[in-house]
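User: Structure tokens for both sequences below?

Assistant:
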Amino acid sequence: MKNIVLTGFMGAGKTTIGKVLAKSLGRNLVDIDSEIEKDSGMKITEIFASMGEAKFRDMETEMAAKLSTLSNLVISTGGGIVLREKNIELLRGNGIVVNLLAAPEIIYARLTGAKDRPLLDVEDPLARIKELLAFRRPFYQNADIVIDTDEKTPIIIAEEIIQSARLLS
């Protein structure tokens, strides 16, 4: 069976919804960022600080290639994986790509106090969220399914994904 690949901005709910979705479908959840941390022996923040964003993006592409050879998974991606078209091509090769949308203010509320978000380590995180979302919007729209997560529970969102994925299968 094809993988279900969750994309979206940080704080959109990829991990939380991924857990519910994987349980509902009886599949394993694989988080790309966690897999990169395991393989590298470093936290994402350490990779950004010591090697830079470009190296991290290379590691994401390698992990996308690896996971695209597997089946029957729910894959939670990092928020920036969509920036390289090749990543989406790889993941779509054996998966249905789902984009989870959330309003900037909701993302900000969900991420307030998070210390593991290097791209938001700035003076005005809400402005940065809005800026990044505006830039990434066309990349996020390159999905098979788009789900708005605002004001919905993870269970409702997972059901929407399951119903939409069935229509595409």
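Moving on to the next sequence.
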Amino acid sequence: MAGNNLVTQICVVVRDVRRANAHWSRVLGVPEEKIETIFPPGVLLHYTHGAAAEYTDCQVAKYQLAGFVLELIQPGASPSPWRTFLEEHGQGVFHFCVLVDDRKAFQHTLAEIGVDLPYHVGYHPSGSYSYVDTREALGLELSVNNQADNRALFQGLMAGAVNPMDELK
């Protein structure tokens, strides 16, 4: 189990992923990474501020570095957490991703330092991720990832039998 001390990803929001990919490739001394369009429909269920959302027009390149992934993401034209960040802050570090064993216990720890529930959550059959505004408490945003058997929760969300983030309350 990972505990709460494993940073697995640093996500950088960029205006032009092709340009950023070329520059990072040169700086890191490695070949450019493949740029993919994410997220394919039906693979993830996304909720932002409690409302279901689809994000299918983001472009991403991911570099597997020593101990973590550097993710470069160019938001699509549609509203998204990444588009909002780009419009409000310009290019920059969007989040650090922390892998946790127990999302509910970790959320309790965040609440103890004054952090609210996530504003964005994504579910898939083998886990979940959420974006938590921890800028005031930690100086940046966190993505909280959990790898677990989420099949029942995923099916419950698809059927409308459960609500997003009920498992955190």
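User: Anything stand out in the second?

Assistant: DSSP finds five helices and ten strands in the chain.
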